[in-house]
Amino acid sequence: MIVDTKDADPVTMVVPPAPKARASLLWLVNPRLAVGLTILGVMGLGSVVLPLFAPADPSVQASYMRNLPMSQAHWLGTNALGQDIFWFLVFAIRNSLTLGVVVAIGVTIIATIVGLSAGYIGGRFERAVMLVVDTFITIPLLPILIILGALIRGNTSFLTVGFIIIVFGWAWDARTVRSMALSLREREFINMARFSGANTLQILVREVFPYVMAYTLVGFINTILFAINLEATLAVIGLSKVEVPTLGSIIFWALNYNALFTGHHVWLVAPIVATVTLFLGLFLTSTGFNQAFASKRGVA
Amino acid sequence: MIRLCDLKISYRIGSRVINAVDGVTLTIPDGSIVGIAGESGCGKSTLMKAIYGDIQAPMHLSGGTIEYGLKGADGRPVTPATIRREWFKSISYVPQSSMNSLNPVIRIRDQFIDFPGTDSNKKRVLERARDYIGRLGLPPEALDSYPHQLSGGMRQRVMIGLATFFQPELIIADEPTTALDVVVQKEILMLLMDLQEQMGNTILVVSHDMGVHYQVTHKMLIMYAGRVVEFGDTESVFADPQHAYTRMLIDSLPTIGDDSMRGAVASAAGAGGDRAYRVEAELIEVKPGHFVARPAARDGAPA
Q1: Could you report how far apart the first and last alpha carbons of chain B are, in Å?
Q2: Residue B95 to chain A, least CA–CA distance (Å)
Q3: Domain B2-90+170-293 is of which CATH architecture?
Q4: Do the Cβ atoms of B127 and A5 come within 8 Å?
Q5: Kind and range of the H or E run holding B283
Q6: Measured between beta carbons, which residues in chain B are less than 8 angstroms from residue A187?
Q7: Domain spans of chain A?
Q8: pLDDT digits over A154-197, tens only?
Q9: Percent of residues, chain B, with pLDDT higher than 90
Q10: Which residues are bridge partners to B291 per DSSP?
């Protein structure tokens, strides 16, 4: 399988890498990952594309008659506020996903940088950083969020909620990444990298990061779950910006108007089904990636 | 040519100071394989680290000088302060535990490419690397593998490949064949010898195995308690060991059918943990190119 590269035509030599890269990507896909990515793809794409065709802003109240049953015009009927449930749900998934991804990006970047540097550099720097991290971990999250939510309720943007979740969510991941870096620091291959003349930054980026990358990706997905979950919790108890459609705010309004007792089940069931499906998609993707990374290295 | 002059390396922890290398004066000629032997804790690895230029707290260069006789990229002679820039270019290191010295989640080829200071054209580097590991007796596919897919001997070959890729003038091999079986051990050592012959560089081999030293090295350096006991041509050292400690090391090589050595070794070495020998820092030349530590008054061991 050796291609004699010396005699090969320079043009043909450029070609081989492309199919190789495609093949190696296909190699990644396992059934679990495929199902997870499909669910995420459908929900993600649907919630991004569909709003462009929305007949009206679903968050505006009294656009339609109230409490209409399911029909051609309103696939899931309308709610007690005169909003179309289907369109409200589409916007809710989009907003929740956006929030989840934004929070996950923020958390992952902060956690990886803080964790890697604290674990690898060590010494006084590590002690100072870990003091901050441990402080954030020990802060009881929900009571703080309830107080904060009560304070800033109404005069905050939806993304501020995301920002607050980032502030209180990065510390755990940072601790995990740091513990990985801590054990890596003592490995012989890191020493070897240093002996070959690499500086700290190069070692972190080239040697340590590939090691924690698989975890980082899975952690990223888990953080999306965490963020959506937390925002929904806050919304259900009315502390997020409930005018903005999210998976939690639908449930908030449905509960507020006693959907459960007035027999308006679709209003309550639809967001729950959507949330569960979304979580299932994220979960399958996360474990699917885990499996794929393992099989890529030939250990599973 | 590496010239060590009254080199003293110490470890400092709090107020405790341990002189791991205690006044070593030595000239290592170019283009030879030098074997370093001595018991654990005699300062071999510390000396190697110091020559490599990896002096980090708690390790301190507390006295003496190291001259490399090399010129850096800027044309000035390399000193311990600037040796870092030459790492893996004109001085490189083959580590003890080859099993763990390759990043397990990165393919071998990427570890070649990742070298700081390599050509920016990855394809050209890869081609050269593929060509090069072929010469080391590795199949070209080895380059596309993860380290855990290779055997211990193959991994050590990869390490040697990485260390010699830029044809360094000095290679430090710290027990390069530990944990390998004797057949692979021999292959690896032959590989090192072949490479040395082709490149004409200097290799420092640390090993506990006197048989390895006898087969591979041109010169022998025997260390004890941070000092040089004996230094000379391997032939001469083995044929006519001058110091009692050297004699004991050589005698520790078992001979088939001769079990008279059993039990004798431990008593000669002073198994009680005391230093069995007193070694002076000063060397005297007993024969051309064969040095031995000046006998201490109490010791009187050398013939």
Answers
A1: 31
A2: 8
A3: 3-Layer(aba) Sandwich (3.40)
A4: yes
A5: strand B283-287
A6: 100
A7: 76-296
A8: 666 777 888 888 998 899 999 999 998 888 888 888 888 888 87
A9: 13
A10: B231, B285
Q: Using 50, 70 and 90 to split pLDDT, how confident is the model at A107?
A: very high
Cβ <8 Å between B103 and A207: yes
- The CA-atom distances, in angstroms, between B251 and each of A28, B24, B233, B239, B248 are 58, 25, 18, 11, 5
Q: pLDDT for B251-299, tens place per residue?
A: 877 777 666 555 444 444 444 445 667 777 788 888 888 888 877 655 4
Task: Give, in degrees to the nearest 5, the angle at Cα A42 between A40 and A46.
Answer: 115
Contacts of B262 (CB under 8 A, 6+ apart): none
Number of A to B CB contacts under 8 A, please give it.
65
Q: Which of A1, A5, A198 sits opposite B141 (nearest CB)?
A: A1
What single DSSP character describes residue B16? E
Q: What is the CATH number of domain A76-296?
A: 1.10.3720.10
Residue A195 sits at the chain B interface (C-beta within 8 Å)? yes
Q: What pLDDT sits at residue B297? A: 53
Domain ranges of chain B: 2-90+170-293, 97-165
The chain A residue lying nearest B97, using CA atoms, is: A188
Q: Are strands B16-28 and B170-174 parallel, antiparallel or unpaired?
A: unpaired
- At residue B135, the pLDDT reads 84
Q: What is the pLDDT of residue B275?
A: 63
**Residues in B touching A195 (Cβ below 8 Å):** 52, 54, 87-88, 92-93, 95
Structure tokens at B68: 């490399």
Residue A12's pLDDT band (boundaries 50, 70, 90)?
Answer: very low
Q: Chain B residues contacting A, CB < 8 Å?
A: 52, 54, 84-85, 87-89, 92-93, 95, 97, 100-106, 114-117, 123, 127, 130, 140-141, 146, 148-149, 159, 162
